[in-house]
Amino acid sequence: MSKFTVINHPLIQHKLRILRDKNTSTKDFRDLVNEIAMLMAYEVSRDMQLEDVEIDTPVAHATVKQLTGKKVAVVPILRAGLGMVDGVVKLIPAARIGHIGMYRDEKTLEPARSISVKLARQILTKTEVIVVDPMLATGGSAKDAIAALKNRGAKYIKLMVLVAAPEGVKAVQAADPDVDIYAAALDDHLNQNGYIVPGLGDAGDRLFGTK
Ligand code: PRP
Ligand code: URA
């Protein structure tokens, strides 16, 4: 079974509290999503591989560490996942950025099937892929996104979300035991409309000011 990690850092928890508040403005919501994504990326990248390299400091010759050449790709699930990309890229500037187009049908709660992955197969097979989406509710969108990436050759995938429901975590762990999941919070449950409770509402609408 894959790992599920809640990143309990006080800064993340404080920012998440503001994000959840229904009175938070679109601008603040957008800024906070990126800030939390950046802080989470610090933890999600903790197992990145390092190698020794020889350099000269102004004082001496030294053997120091640098990241190995392994590339990272950030793949947002559209549309709300877009809100997390800049934050991750601030921390990992060399990351490739892919996109997965998909949306959840509000009635059936199923992700709509026309999924497009905008990232070349030869990149996907070699990179560590961090899939980002603020919400993991039923898990349907994340599972379909991961399946699409695996179909295109992705081998090393992590899922990073802001708020997860127990139902979504269970669904992704069952479908993808090789994909570790990172969240800023594990909430209580899903309501009858598939919204996370207490959650933060519709992440896409709050990010883009569409309702
Ligand atoms: C939201 C959210 C996830 C999905 C989670 O997107 O950003 O992608 O729902 O729900 P699930 O776990 O039950 O699949 P939505 O489909 O509302 O599209 P949007 O990003 O365009 O708002
Ligand atoms: N998608 C959202 O944007 N919010 C939820 O609570 C569930 C799915």
Automatic annotation (TrEMBL):
Residues 6-210 form the Phosphoribosyltransferase domain. Keywords: Allosteric enzyme, Glycosyltransferase, GTP-binding, Magnesium, Nucleotide-binding, Transferase. Pathway: Pyrimidine metabolism; UMP biosynthesis via salvage pathway; UMP from uracil: step 1/1. Uracil binds at I196, G201, D202, A203. 5-phospho-alpha-D-ribose 1-diphosphate binds at R79, R104, D133, P134, M135, L136, A137, T138, G139, G140, S141, D202. GO terms for molecular function: GTP binding; magnesium ion binding; uracil phosphoribosyltransferase activity. HAMAP family: Upp_B. PANTHER family: ADENINE PHOSPHORIBOSYLTRANSFERASE (PTHR32315), URACIL PHOSPHORIBOSYLTRANSFERASE, CHLOROPLASTIC (PTHR32315:SF4). This is Uracil phosphoribosyltransferase. The gene is upp.
